[in-house]
Amino acid sequence: MALLHISEPGRTPAPHARRYVLGIDLGTTNSLVACVRSGVAETLPDDNGRHLLPSVVRYLRGAAPVVGYEAIAVAHEDPLNTIASVKRLMGRGVEDVKRLGRTLPYEFTQADSAMPRIRTVAGELSPVEVSAEILKELKRRAQATLGAEVRDAVITVPAYFDDAQRQATKDAARVAGLNVLRLLNEPTAAALAYGLDRRAEGVYVVYDLGGGTFDVSLLRLNRGVFEVLATAGDSALGGDDMDHAVAEWLMRAAGIGDDDVQGGTGVGRLQHPASRDTGTSLYGAGDRMSGATADRKRLRRLLRDARAAREALTQNSRTPVQVARADGSVWEGALTRAQLQALVEPLIDRTLPPCRRVLRDAGLRADEVLGVVLVGGATRMPRVREKVAEFFGRAPLADIDPDRVVAVGAAIQADAIGGNRRDDDLLLLDVIPLALGIEIMGGMVEKIVPRNTTIPVARAQDFTTYKDGQTALLVHVLQGERELIADCRSLARFELRGIPPMAAGAARIRVTFQVDADGLLSVSAREQTTGAESHVAVKPSYGLTDAEIERMLRDSIAHAREDEAARTLREQQVEADRMIEAVTAALAADGARLLSADERAAIEARVAELKVARDGDEARAIKRAVEALDGATGGFAARRMDDAVRAALAGHRLEEFSPSPEPKPR
């Protein structure tokens, strides 16, 4: 009799095969991808050995986007088309972006949907599409390193991300061709990386201050169960805000006013050049302003220099700074660690009330915490560590690179979900960050699922009708801690129809909220006497619609060959630039001494041919020109090497470099 080959759900049927699942930290400033290999969770580097990928995307006309270091290097020269800190825009609506306007040197447009779009030379793009490019690059890096096709991933999000921001993250992953097995809260991932599940049982705190978000989570380990007790934070607070504080100080110190950055007069706050009045001109006004592009370049340059100064003061007590003015002059000065601390102290202080709140929610005191884990690049600042130590009364744990710790934890969770370790080795109980409820009469919110409720969870509550004969009901789903709907975020609306006509208060309508392990919500409403029912999987208006996602996926498939060709062209252009620079430098150094006039002319002709090919749009032509220049410079390279060897040997005897003869046996 034939036997069935049975395997556990989620596990590979091959007994010794490993299923790779990626752990991805999609960060505001930098992103990373990690995986468990040979039992060790490790971040995966690029071809140059760099583990961090700057979360920056530059869009080009008629070419594939550039992601990472190459994009950030020219961000100040091409600010309209180089998008950084896009995580701060994920799941945001138009009004949210207007409030963030002063910190964003981009030009926004408003499409038919509530999601704002960024205008670039490649078209109008949503934050979801920009994030998808970062995820695509991380996916390419992982597949090149692992040598295998990988589609499954666990992606981390700030614990304080609301439903709209979480859904936007999943949408970005779908566009990037990734299957998200779990959205994991960043503090929980950090706790896994530190192995808190293997330490003494008790309460731990994860303090996560990144580039654009702040989270603090209180976790308890009890008998192998890893439970999040409470979480709080601010999804619009991080190192970016510190950079703006430093940039504003640089403006004041250099005597730069609105006439240098805004086009007006007087000294003012650093802000987006198209939002100097009320913020409403943020949409579509940028290029119509005189000097707006130059303003954006100066803004980007200021922010770049501010970040470099802040990072330098992590190790040094003083760092030189300089600022280029609009008139071409340069102001030079210095920034001390004490000055930096005074500038960012108000921002660091904003992280302490959430710390108090999680302790209060859990009914604990600071001295009951066994350990504090630091996460995020901004926690490298000495003043941040001092503040955390003062608040909790103990030195924080910081022996893992705060930039990598979240990705490593995500890889550990991904390995478990992928079926590569026993399921009972790891049990995570996460919580929702904000209360969920519905609108009731009077414009008030009835909370059905309180904040810090462990997920996954299902909660139900009965409601009734307000008027006699009412046959339909509008269910308005909201998220937030306030009591009035105007102070909470609207997530979705749907209708329940088919209610039999009854006297007011006679109908019994049960509304059920279900939150899955990713923190995503679905809501249903059922009239108990007739069984009439309606439900909605909440997809906030700030996220992408199904039609938009379908369009992006169709475009991705339809333009796959074009995208690959554009990427190949860009790679050949980079190689051409590298070779032109190297040959030009060699000619300047040794051409007159080692080459005849004819030989030099031949090489220079090949360089000119490569420059022409490089500016074209045919990758094969560039490759042929590179090979031709390589062949023409072969003899020159050999002569330079021989010359270098002769210079190294000058003044020495050959015997000095010969090995000593072995002693003869006696």
UniProtKB/TrEMBL annotation:
InterPro entries: ATPase_NBD (IPR043129), Heat_shock_70_CS (IPR018181), HSP70_C_sf (IPR029048), HSP70_peptide-bd_sf (IPR029047), Hsp_70_fam (IPR013126), ISC_FeS_clus_asmbl_HscA (IPR010236). Gene3D superfamilies: 1.20.1270.10, 3.30.420.40, Actin, Chain A, domain 4, Substrate Binding Domain Of DNAk, Chain A, domain 1. Residues 266-294 are annotated as: Disordered. Pfam families: HSP70. One of its GO terms (molecular function) is unfolded protein binding. Keywords: ATP-binding, Chaperone, Nucleotide-binding. One of its GO terms (biological process) is iron-sulfur cluster assembly. Belongs to the heat shock protein 70 family. Chaperone involved in the maturation of iron-sulfur cluster-containing proteins. Has a low intrinsic ATPase activity which is markedly stimulated by HscB. This is Chaperone protein HscA homolog.
